[in-house]
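Quick illustration, no need to memorize.
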Amino acid sequence: MTTQTLLAHLRTQLAKDPWRISPVRIYPDARLAQDLDLDSLDLQELTLALEPVLHTELTDPPATTQTIAHLITHLQSHLQSHLQSHLQSHLQSSALRT
């Protein structure tokens, strides 16, 4: 999933309750704590809110996640791993059927 797509999803989610952050404040270099007033609990709740949108279970971002760009990188890495795992599983089940 592209950076722009994930950024759009983050803007949509963070504009909702309980955060109500204006989408114009959400840009790659925005600092989670200092600029957006998000703490680790907010990141956990945001991760849970993104799961149905991204159609996968997500792991919580690492404690070192400091910016929207870091968060997007974490999401992309997780989605890539999920896709690879899903593809391997599909290939293995296809090989068993032949």
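The radius of gyration is 15 Å.
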